[in-house]
Amino acid sequence: MKARVFQKLIGKYMSEMGAEVYYQKFHPEGNQFHPLHFFSGPDSYTLLDNVSCASYGVNVAGIIRAPRGDGKESIVLVTPYDFINGGDYEALSLGITGTLFSLLARVTWLSKDIIWLVADSRYGDYRPVAAWLTEYHSPSFKDSDLLKCGELNTADKFRRAGTMAAALVLKVDGRSERFEDTLSIYAEASNGQMPNLDLINVVNYLAVHRQGFYVKVEKVVSLLSSSWLKIIGEIFEAVGKLAHTLNPDWNFGIPTADYLEGSATLASSLYSQALGIPTGPHGAFRDYQVDAITLKVSPRFPPDSKTRQHDFFLRGAKLLEGTIRSVNNLLEKFHQSFFLYLLTSPSKFISVGVYMIAFALLVASLPMVAASLYIDGCKALNNSTLNPAGNFKSWKWLDAAKQVFALHLFGLIVTLLPYFICQVPGQHSPSNRSIMWGTTSSSLLLITFATIPGCSPFSSRRHGTNWAVLKSVTISAAFIGLCLMSIINFATAEIGALLLVPTCLIVQPIKPALRSRRIKSLLGAFCSMVLLTIGFPVMLFAISKGLFGEGLVGLSLGGEFWTWLESLWAWKSATYLYIGMVHLPCWLLCLCILFHPS
Amino acid sequence: MASLVRSWIPLLILQSFLVAVAFGSKEAEQFSEALLLKPLPDRKVLAHFHFENRAPPSNSHGRHHHLFPKAISQLVQKFRVKEMELSFTQGRWNHEHWGGFDPLSSMNAKPVGVELWAVFDVPQSQVDTSWKNLTHALSGLFCASINFLESSTSYAAPTWGFGTNSDKLRYGSLPREAVCTENLTPWLKLLPCRDKDGISALMNRPSVYRGFYHSQRLHLSTVESGQEGLGSGIVLEQTLTVVLQPETTSVETNMQPSWSLSSLFGRKVVGSCVLAKSSNVYLQLEGRLGHESKNVDTEIEAHKLWKNADFDLSLKPDRVLRESSGLLFIFDIDKSSDSEPFDLGLNWKLPSKWSCQQAPLQASRFLMGSGNERGAIAILLKATESQEKLPGRELTDGRCTIKANIFQIFPWYIKVYYHTLQIFVDQQQKTDSEVLKKINVSPSTDKVSSGMLEMMLELPCEVKSAAISIEYDKGFLHIDEYPPDANQGFDIPSALISFPSHHASLDFQEELSKSPLLSSFKEKSLVRSYTEVLLVPLTTPDFSMPYNVITITCTIFALYFGSLLNVLRRRIGEEERFLKSQAGKKTGGVKQLLLRLTAKIRGRPIEAPSSESPAAESSFLSTKLIFKIILIAGAAAAWQYFSTDK
Question: Keywords for this entry (chain A) (predicted)?
Fold first, then answer.
């Protein structure tokens, strides 16, 4: 009941300012795993058959029409607000946006319409915004049961305001730890998509130079205190200084502290992009090609101090007004080039032209090694076998390719398995589900090894595939997979390449190495064992968790891993597909090579 | 001024008499001006300037005009225009608050930008040529880029969806055209008094363009005389509709703001245009009928109409007319002078509220879908509150129905799939045959012509909402088809929704005066409303890409040819022999290399004297130069070859 009163109050407030107000009901249930939904766009409003009126959210939205505008474009302001147990900080964000909105209702310079969406954040920040956007862009004209729920009649009242030019999500949370008010910018949307860099630059410039906010973006805090990074930073600083004394034009040296900050931010930026999960409600806008960012403001005073509130309102609203004005005055769209970048600080970035080089250098070794291994393998085969079938020189790779293909098929099946596990009736805990998944996958793996001849690493047949050819085909497959992934989500491909490329390059059969007892080969075998252990996805997950400060062991790890994967597919992250269809098969193939009986 | 006017009048009378004698026509050219003011429910004021210029039918040869603008009559004669309307609009008409069912809104609520339609009196084969010539002529006349309508991709030939049934009709609109004083000045030039005298003197540019809505319209139609040897007469109607926000000091939000002509426009009317036959100011008040008795004969009753508890007017109206939904006060401005300017004011005393009559269905249009590949256009029709009260319902087969025409032009890069047309009535999907009475589709041809959709819907009277959606693919444009402007996206012009069975007119209870404005209001006009302009983001190439491509291609060419030539020119045997002979004496090679390296690092030139002769260097340089020139020329030729293939 309290929620209804609040919603009505906000609606009344908006309409008194001269805005067009409407309410939108939405169903909190949203994302469901469907194996084929990874690359499809935002699906149209699929109506559930059994809509219950027990739980539904209501968004309140108001539109200010630009007095002399043509109504072709609009700018969206979003403030998530929990209508039932919203705290003081959430109320502050409403206050800032409300102040701004009442100003915008009176100004004459608007050329784009302004939409203010108060999203019902009882069901999370993302879902209400996504529901509103779905209704905005792909409404269902059919009858819906949801509309009949409650006394609030929302049918046919939904209003639109043209193509969205940009969207800003404002949140106020927590007290700032620093002396200044802090502004955090979140930009990563699903699958590592970023909004246009210009939007971040505008906000950063206005916040730093006009309103005196301390602006930050997410960073991996544990990296800041790591000593090895510090040492590298110091080396860089020293080299930079030396270069500067040699030639005053060379100014690439940066202080160690900056280097540490930059690396921590870069790592966080790379990680959030690689994960493919949006870092806030702005992610919903990216699905519709709208540039959006989330601004989280932390005031330096407690929320109930009235004297400071005024100043805070003024500065927050001024920042938003400046940003809106910048977008409003822009006749064209943001330039199309600045979507591919990694942030190293709010004002610095690494563009695609630079970061592609690192990846290209990493991956470029793969085809060369594959070619050389193939030639070696062919020679070895020619020497060992003298049967007439050896005439088919060019078909040497076929056996190995069969194995590679079989394991990739296995990877695909493992990727799709969770969908069927979710269909198993009854309530299961995540750890139970992960056990189910693990057992089915391993039994499937055994079946694969048993049914396909020459596939198993444990078969003792000497005339199986030559390991060099197998490795060559594996490397080719890894190369193709990584290159494809780099187009879909670069950050995933980059991190994946860091793991997969050394593993693929270093792996060699362990038996000859043990037999030879030479230090070099023993070291190689040891390295490949370590890399393969790290490369196992579950292990990787545990290590990354450890890096972020949470240690996990035993069964809870399985449960956590399951929940993590669940979140990946719920957000349609291509990283999940990458793990299942590129990383896992290549890892298994490397395992096969390691235990190859040659 | 007054004396000047007085001395002019006999002269004018004499002149018009002479004209009448000279040409033997029955009636002379007439000009009349009028201004209609109307307070709007959302605390704004509408001002509608109306100028009418009539040229009677006369002999087709040797035509001279006295009041009628020569430019227009030449236009009509040259291009054989039967009827034409041109409008320049800025801002959006608010159908909810400013009305949608009166003649004023159905005639003056226009789409953003420029809209032009014309009916020609030429053989069918020449219509397109006439249209093209007309757009160019108008473009020059009004300082606007109307000539963009010349291209066959931007206009269409509606058959019945537009309201005028003619196969010689052409329609086009430019949503992106910005409207400014540049367009108003030539429009004013067509008036006999320009903006120097009469009502048009009120048009103070800053106040006119400060408004929320601004639409200047020019409508001309030819009147056939019906007699042999006589040409056709022309009626030129020029209107300017502005919606202004009066400045108010009152803090009370539900109180209507008081205003006067001088506070709205910053100017006052001093006398009428001497050339005008009639010049009147009208004040229309809607929704105040309840408290009046039938007879207004007595002086007190009449007085009460304009000075009562709710509001009072600063001037006494000359006449008061009643129509079905409100009052119309008529003022004659002939009496005003320099010393006593006409400054009508309306002063509200009590808060008052009323609502405008709305069209039976309110239309809104939006784009659906995401991504740069495909999408859908949806038109949503919602029933308004006043729908039940409106006349014009029809009974077909015992059912009460509302008819709605939809006319929409699609630019060719919006490739519409007409088979995906879906119609929902009250959230139920209907088959085409149930609601669609007539449909006319002309598909677009890539880069040649735009597509057009005309639909007649027949909806039940109790309809709450209706939705139409149609899917499309976004086209790819060739690089030179992108406009040189900032890339904002591409526009889909407004759709026109009209209601063929609903007609708007003002129904006066008293007999009419001869005012052209009132007679045009009394005529039944089709109720129509335009939807929003839509912006479609198309895939836009990065136009700096060719530059990057040229750079990278040249680099690769240079590397390839450089290494190739190097390999070809080298004589390895000679070099080896040379090296062998040198091996004995060479000592300081490493040292020299180091010296060079340090110099390079420090960014200073080498001080060591160069042993090479300048002549050798220059010849080397020239070969290098020639090589470079050849390379660039080759790249340019390749670029030219690839960019011009079509």
Answer: Membrane, Transmembrane, Transmembrane helix
Write out chain B residues lying below 8 Å of A288, CB-based.
Answer: 370
The Cα angle at residue B544 between residues B542 and B546, in degrees rounded to 5: 100
Q: How far is B486 from chain A (nearest CA, A)?
A: 5
| Residue of A47, A72, A144 for testing the chain B interface, max B β-carbons within 10 Å | A72
Distance from CA of B591 to the nearest CA of A (A): 19
Q: How many CB pairs under 8 A join A and B?
A: 102
Considering just the CA atoms, what is the radius of gyration of chain B in Å?
35
| pTM for this model (two decimals) | 0.85
Q: Do B429 and A160 touch (CB under 8 A)?
A: no
B253/A contact by beta carbon, under 8 A: yes
Cβ A305 vs Cβ A311: under 8 Å: no
Report strand pairing: A348-351 vs A341-345: antiparallel
Whether the CB of B251 is below 8 Å from some CB of chain A: the reply is: no
> Across the interface, do A246 and B602 touch by the CB < 8 Å criterion?
yes
3-class DSSP state for residue A572? coil
A162 contacts B370? CB cut-off 8 A: no
3-state secondary structure of A401: helix
Measured at the CA of A160, the angle between CA A315 and CA A157, to 5 degrees, comes to: 110
Question: How many contiguous H segments (helices) and E segments (strands) does chain B have?
Answer: 15, 27
Would you call B366 an interface residue with chain A, using a CB distance cutoff of 8 Å? yes
Distance from CA of B124 to the nearest CA of A (A): 36
For residue A147, the chain B residue with the least C-alpha distance is B427
Distance CA B448, CA B469 (A): 25
Q: Note down pLDDT in tens along chain A; length 598 residues.
A: 678 888 888 989 998 888 899 988 888 765 555 655 665 555 544 444 455 677 788 899 999 999 888 889 999 999 999 888 877 888 888 989 998 999 999 888 999 999 999 998 888 888 899 889 988 998 888 777 666 676 666 655 788 998 999 999 999 887 777 778 889 999 998 888 899 999 999 999 999 998 888 998 888 888 888 888 999 999 989 998 888 888 888 877 788 889 999 999 999 999 899 988 888 899 999 888 899 999 999 888 776 777 788 888 888 899 999 999 999 998 888 876 688 899 999 999 998 888 988 999 999 999 999 999 888 887 776 666 555 444 455 666 777 888 888 889 999 988 888 878 877 777 777 778 888 888 888 888 888 877 766 555 555 554 456 788 889 999 999 999 999 999 889 999 999 999 999 999 988 888 888 888 788 888 888 888 888 888 888 888 888 777 666 655 666 777 888 888 888 877 888 888 899 899 999 998 898 888 877 6
- Indicate the residue of A159, A162, A336 with minimum beta-carbon distance to B542: A336
Instruction: From chain B, pick out residues whose CB is under 8 angstroms from the CB of A159.
Output: 364
Q: What ipTM goes with this model?
A: 0.85
Q: Does B429 touch chain A (CB under 8 A)?
A: yes
Question: Angle between the A519-535 and A584-594 helix axes, to the nearest 10 degrees?
Answer: 150
Closest CA to A104 of A73, A160, A65: A65
B contact test, residue of A136, A141, A190, A351 with most B CBs within 10 A: A141
Map A192-211 to HEC letters: HCCCCHHHHHHHHHHHHHHC
**H/E run at residue B237:** strand B233-244
Q: Give me the residue label for tokens 């004002």.
A: A347
